[in-house]
Write a structure and sequence with these properties.
The protein folds into two domains: 242 residues, Phosphohistidine domain (Glucose Oxidase, domain 1), CATH 3.50.30; 314 residues, Phosphoenolpyruvate-binding domains (TIM Barrel, Alpha-Beta Barrel). The relative contact order is 0.10. 46% of the residues lie in helices and 14% in strands. Helix 3 crosses helix 6 and helix 13 packs parallel to helix 15. The chain is α/β, with parallel strands linked by helices.
């Protein structure tokens, strides 16, 4: 096949080289080349394949459990449960005993189950269709390789080309050692990108039409930094990229060379906090000397599971984060479900515009039983440490106070039962909506702290879907309305002597950091691996000059003029 260069949209940075596997095409084990082997398989070989497949799934599960506690033994649990189902396996064995070819017996029983599950009104049953298809692939691959020495069905060395992607899929691909992912349909949703970055899984969104002709086995060089897909790259191109790959993965000496505190060149103190979604990132944040966790996205343990995590399962995750960070500050954002973050196992109902629907604090107030369980787990996990709880997508003082009252009620109940817990958590609000900016002073009076969520703030203020590539050029964080809104929130927090931080893409944007410092912001919440770079930038920034720049920028209402002032192309 000829050499090609395809441009896509980067979802998670990284550079990898591997061979393509197109998951929408029939897996290799199911092609005609394997048919003869499958026809000769016996009942005993089928049973051995079931046993070995189960062992492999358990190995994947165990390896992921070591990497991220959030998996909570759920990633491969559904697949293992299917293999443990005596009724399912028994039906296949009966067909084999009656003389049916093993492959045909598997497909026949699986098709029957798929028909039943596909027509079910229960969404959990409908989701089992993909589980059944995956089990079929694994069993057939295992059977087709019975005569081979290697019995691995992992994705090591592979770059997956997929048409759809769930959070659990990313975890499964990571467990099976996939090198990277090319997604061919839908937008790159925020939680998918966050999870892929957290797992250091390079991912690009590309138009399916541009990938026409790429088949499994094609050599791919995925440059997710630049959003480039090199198909059958020239050896010279591979050689150049391999020099970059050598430094990928581990914390470099430069990253470790981080001062415990960050100051501008003229001495202003700026705190650098980490934004994380996984326990493993807490370890990284501690290693890279973050001054605390400014945002822990607590929805990740919910998104990667097949059911709601119990209070004890949530406690285990939160406790590990608390222990990893010692006594450092940790801001736990409560469950932020809705918009592009949907729980497949929870029937939330159809919404014509989920970003304007039941999400953030609205979801938790609508489902207080879910909220209360999470709060109990957080309070228990921080019984001997300081605790900050933050509510997402706050739209009114009323909703903030309602949620705060629920927290106080949980504390009273824990007190009555003598359960060890943190009885005096600080409670804050995330400013992400234009209406919240308008009541910033009132929120500052009621809260213990504020945090500006820049990604959603830009999206809602400019009416631009940040996951939609077609309107990406209108997503301009340097818009005067955005900068003035941030200044309003900072001033409100300072007036009432409340801490205020900012997270999201603006927090580690080198063009915008001086403006933010100039507006009086002293806390930035950024990805752990950006701490070293951002610290160096701040150390070379003069706070007084940044203040003059901020005044100048805030004085104009023209987007292009601000872009010129900041050197934005």
């Amino acid at each position: 096949m000829e050499q090609r260069l395809i441009t896509g949209q980067s979802a998670a940075d990284g550079i990898v080289i591997g061979t393509a596997i197109v998951t929408s095409a029939p897996p290799e084990a199911e092609t005609a080349t394997k048919a003869a082997l499958l026809e000769k398989c016996t009942l005993e070989e089928f049973r051995r394949a079931v046993k070995e497949t189960r062992e492999q799934l358990q190995q994947f599960q165990d390896s992921m459990q070591e990497r991220i506690a959030e998996s909570a033994s759920q990633i491969f649990a559904a697949h293992i449960a299917i293999l443990d189902d005596a009724g399912f396996i028994g039906k296949i064995e009966k067909h084999i005993e009656a003389g049916t070819c093993v492959a045909e017996a598997i497909n026949r029983v699986v098709d029957d189950y798929i028909d039943i599950f596909s027509n079910s009104v229960n969404p959990r049953f409908r989701e089992k269709v993909d589980d059944l298809k995956d089990i079929t692939r694994r069993l057939l691959a295992r059977l087709a390789n019975q005569t081979d020495a290697a019995l691995s069905a992992s994705y090591q060395g592979r770059i997956l080309i997929v048409s759809k992607l769930l959070p659990s899929d990313i975890l499964r691909f990571a467990a099976e050692k996939a090198e990277g992912i090319i997604l061919t349909s839908g937008g790159v949703t925020a939680h998918i990108s966050i999870l892929a970055r957290s797992l250091e899984m390079p991912m690009i969104l590309a138009d399916a039409k541009l990938l026409t002709g790429i088949t499994s086995g094609t050599t791919i060089l995925l440059d997710a930094h630049a959003g480039k897909i090199h198909v059958n790259p020239d050896p010279m191109v591979i050689s150049e990229y391999k020099s970059l790959l050598e430094t990928r993965g581990k914390v470099s000496p430069g990253e470790r060379n981080i001062e415990p505190q960050t100051h501008t060149s003229d001495g202003r103190r700026i705190r650098l906090l980490a934004a994380i979604g996984l326990v493993s990132e807490a370890r990284l944040a501690h290693e890279l000397r973050a001054e605390g966790i400014g945002l822990y996205r607590s929805e990740i343990p919910f998104l990667v599971r097949n059911d709601f995590p119990t209070e004890d399962e949530q406690y285990a995750v939160y406790r590990k984060i608390v222990e990893e960070m010692g006594g450092a500050e940790i801001v736990f954002r409560t469950l932020d479900i809705g918009g592009d973050k949907i729980l497949g196992y929870f029937p939330a109902g159809e919404e014509s515009n989920p970003f304007l629907g039941l999400r953030g604090i609205r979801f938790t107030l609508h489902h207080p039983e879910i909220f209360n369980t999470q709060i109990r787990a957080l309070l228990r996990a921080s019984h001997d440490r300081p605790l900050k709880i933050m509510f997402p997508l706050v739209s009114s003082v009323d909703s903030f106070c309602h949620a705060r009252d629920l927290v106080k009620d949980v504390i009273r109940k824990l007190n009555s039962k003598d359960v060890p817990h943190q009885s005096k958590p600080e409670i804050g609000a995330m400013i992400e909506l234009p209406c919240a900016v308008g009541i910033a002073e009132e929120l500052a009076m009621e809260t213990d702290f504020l945090s500006i969520g820049s990604n959603d703030l830009v999206q809602y203020m400019l009416a631009v879907d940040r996951t939609n590539e077609q309107v990406a050029t209108w997503y301009t964080p340097w818009h005067p309305a955005i900068l003035r809104a941030i200044k309003t929130v900072i001033d409100a927090a300072h007036l009432h002597r409340k801490p205020v931080s900012l997270c999201g893409g603006m927090a580690d944007d080198p063009k915008l950091i001086p403006v933010l410092i100039g507006m009086g912001l002293t806390d930035l919440t950024i990805p752990p691996r950006r701490i070293s770079t951002v610290q160096r930038l701040i150390q070379s920034t003069n706070a007084a000059a940044a203040g003059e720049l901020a005044t100048k920028v805030l004085g104009t209402g023209i987007v292009s003029e601000i872009a010129n002032m900041l050197g934005i192309a």
